[in-house]
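Hey Z.,

So I finally got round to the arginine thing we talked about over coffee. Here's the setup:
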Amino acid sequence: MNFRQAIIDGLAPLTQLPVQAIGDLLEIPPQPQMGDYAFPCFTLAKTLRKAPPAIASDLAGRLGQSLSFIDRIETSGGYLNFFIDRATLVSQTVRDTICAGDQLGLSDLGKGQTILVEFSSPNIAKPFHVGHAFTTILGNALARFYQHLGYTTIRMNHLGDYGTQFGKLIVAFKLWGNEAALNEHPIQELLRIYVKFHDEAKEQPELETKARDQFRRLEAGEPEQIALWQRFRDLSLLEFERVYQRLGVSFDNYNGESFYSDQIPAVVDWLKQKELLEDSEGAQVVRLDEKNLPPCIILKSDGTTIYASRDIAAVLYRDRTYHFSKNIYVVGTPQALHFRQVFAVLEKAGFEKASECIHVGFGLVKFADRKLSTRSGDVILLEDLLSESVEKTLEIIQKNAALRHPDMTDLDMRQIAEKIGIGAVVFTFLKNSRERDIVFSWEEMLDFEGDSAPYVLYTYARARSILRKAEQEGAAYQNCPDESLRLLASDDEFALAKLLESFGPTLEKAVSVHEPFMLVRLITSLARVFNKYYHHESILKTQDPNLRAARLALVDAVSIGIRTGLDLLGISAVERM
Ligand code: ARG
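And the result:
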């Protein structure tokens, strides 16, 4: 039962407000003594010409007994505070959660709407560093959230596979490239010759001219340049795929920047027709003075295309192809200005969905302990980060297994460590508001007691082990009747049910502001309260068989909440650890 929705539906005829507006106003009070839901009457004061406290008591009187699940409605200031009958809340929520299973929080909120989520978008021939890890992990979570809420979700990977740097790579490869090395460690080799190019170009500036010429040939479609570029792209993509697989991430569309190169002339014509293009020192630009933005360069003085023009072409292509409702870019905050310019050009040109293009930025990635092994200079590769996390987790698992699971095989431990180690990295990227910088520390990341993936995963495994034991003892909790579930009356039991009840609304809220941390907080709280409960109550030893079944059902519901939350974040749960 959706209590929130039922309250909204109850208020609608009495307030004459649209359902959506009531939903926006309805709050979850900061303190439990203020009720489970609160409705502020201040906005009604104008239309009803009454003081908010008077409106509140009038509404309370008229709502009266119409909501059967309400224990009482109190008024305080201009607020209506709803107290849901505890036994009803607990029993219904536990039952609904078990019924929903992995579909907990599923809704059709996004029915009929297509959301494009662009994320990851690494650069070909460059290492996949931790900044790209952030967009990959954040974007994957957001795409999963949208999907769960019923949106048609398209995952876009706007590969950085074009631009003048490819001219440099072609020149460098012809001069210093090593075939065998390219096949074995493509990105390492491409990085090597790229760095060499920059070193050499200091002495021989003519290399830069050559590089520009090679890029021009590439853009003109000359076979030799195309063939080399294609190889660099294919080999790099193979390496990226390895990381994606490990993270369980996939894409529907890999159209990189190169894909849009031949669509630029149409963009240029369009902007010309709108009389927006101006000449500026030989380059073609759109001025954005009235928006207090620097001009957006569309064509460089040598006639080649650039990053921004390819993004403009991409928006138009995306709209033609997918008729998107929203087009979301999960890209680091340092590119905020770029996106403001691109969206501003589109708006100026009269593109109607310019306001549906949204940049979702995020902070920087830092390391508390710089003991992380780096293979290529100063950048930290995601693959190394994942491997190190898995190795460190394995050590902990081996120690624990020796104590608790003597039957665990080496392979079991490796598989578990892979999931927990990767989960720990994913969790760290998602646990705080995305604009905040991330400071990695192994201690925090792998703290089995802290706000970490291992802590939440461990709690899940503990809940599952209780259920396994119960099954071995033949306890039936699956179809626990309502009368039994109503016996769950302790504060912890109520708190757990409340958290489960907020799963759907939390997911919706998290999507509306593109903040997965809200769901991380929810499952971390579930784990915290569950552990407290587990220490207070010896669930399996409960005397009353009806209460015992109800408690086990609650354990089942909690495990569903944690597992579904983790899955939406892109973390796989483990049954034992
Ligand atoms: N490849 C770029 C980079 O690594 C990110 C691309 C962002 N997406 C876009 N549509 N411009 O910095």
